[in-house]
Amino acid sequence: MDPMSPEELEQQIRAVGAERYHDKHPFHRLLHSGKLTKGQVQAWALNRYCYQAAVPRKDAALMSRTTDRELRREWVHRILDHDGYGDEEGGIERWLALTDGLGLDREYVTSMRGALPATKFAVEAYVNFVRERSLVEAVASSLTELFAPAIHRERIAGMLENYDFIDEKVMAYFRRRLTQAPRDAQFALEYVKRHATTRELQELCIEAVRFKCNVLWAQLDALHHAYVSPGLIPPGAFRPEDVA
User: Fold this and answer.
1) pTM (two decimals)
2) Which domain holds residue 35?
């Protein structure tokens, strides 16, 4: 088959988000509408930390593979955005401000001892994907960021309105991502459109976005199964009653 035009490729990538992005997951609908208990919100924040902590590792893995200096110069911002630099605290620290504000012990959160097994498997699958697949597929897997600002705006408004234990301080991570995610996504999108020049590569890039959506969806499946319905918390995983 003939290659798609760059515009057609972008349309196909955006269509994946419209169908599969995790803003459509039942757990997120409960989270944003104020239907979860504090313990369930704690479980979400604690498990999501595993993903946040893995982002700099997957970005470092991507950078280690490329001889493209310009790509490295642009991509390094992602690591600094999450790990921080100088007086900039970084996204991981802002996420820990969220878990602090929810009453979780910081050492317990960062140890990831209480995270669900499925969370850990999903996160490591993403790191391994970026490490092992072609460079353009690795870049494409980040393109769920195209869909992130809308969910961040919804989350900020919904959680501030519906939970008395949420305030502006603990929402700092999401407010910063409103400007960071569009910048990162636009660079990655242009890179994919420029370098995915065959139909085969284009299809692989679209599949990479599907894979990343599945990684995010699987994490919410695990949370819903453990903490909502049927409520089967695996041995060793976080139990809200332990910090109530």
Assistant:
1) 0.94
2) 6-229
